[in-house]
Amino acid sequence: MNNILMKVIRFPLKTLIIGACVAGGSVFGQTLTLPQNLITFNSPEGEKLLFESQSRDDFFPLGMQFVTQNTQTYCGVASIVMVLNGLQIPAPETPEYSPYRVFTQENFFNNEATRKVLPPEVVSRMGMTLEQIGQLLASYGVKVKVYHAADTNLEDFRKLVSQNLKQPANFVIINYLRKEIGQQKGGHISPIAAYNEKTDRFLIMDVARYKYPPIWVKTADLWKAMATPDSVSGKTRGFVFVSRS
After folding, report:
1. Cys bridge to 148: 29, 47, 191, 238, which one at CB 3.0-4.6 A?
2. Which CATH number covers residue 85?
3. What is the C-alpha to C-alpha distance for residues 239 and 81, in angstroms, rounded to an integer?
4. Domain count for the chain
5. How far apart are CA 144 and CA 243, in angstroms?
6. Is 21 a catalytic site residue?
7. Catalytic site residue 188?
8. How does pLDDT run across 217-245, given as a tens digit for each residue?
9. pLDDT tens, 159-184?
10. Is 75 assigned a catalytic role?
11. Do 85 and 91 contact (CB within 8 A), yes or no?
């Protein structure tokens, strides 16, 4: 493929990328400095990694729904809301958008079955565990598969998630320990949007947009961050697959 054709292809892709990311509001503010092992998405190198990716079917649906978590414990809620909207699951009523319906972090717990899994008061205080992510998603009738890191391995994680990212209408949410990839500092939850085969990196759409931008992280580093114990559940963190039932 000659350079002129490459430039023609790159321009509309870049335009779509920017459009997808700004759909969720302001893109990035004064975020924290990233360590050298991570590549920020909004950089020439980060853009190139997405352009070269063969596993990016989830990027644009997630980009169109990209939100910032409302509070520092609402990373799980923000991630779930992005995924449910991306799957176009019927949402609760939203008075401010009536007659239209959309999942928001404010109306997510309007479902009685959801509140029975975990009330919003608890999430506001403690966040949620990997298993609770799966249970909260299931309360809206979607198909969920929870993988604790201790029950799988690095190779399986790479294979399962990269294959998932080549398929439409399903998503991946990860639960990992930030400090293991060089960030500050505790447990966190966000969706994965793409995989770059050449560099063996995954793109995390970090919902703490006030703190960090989306980043490309090495698979081995991300795996290490998931294979850490959650002090609440006593189990390892991991990842969740979500699709329509």
Report:
1. 238
2. 3.90.70.30
3. 16
4. 1
5. 7
6. no
7. yes
8. 999 999 999 999 999 999 999 999 999 98
9. 999 999 999 999 999 999 999 999 99
10. yes
11. yes
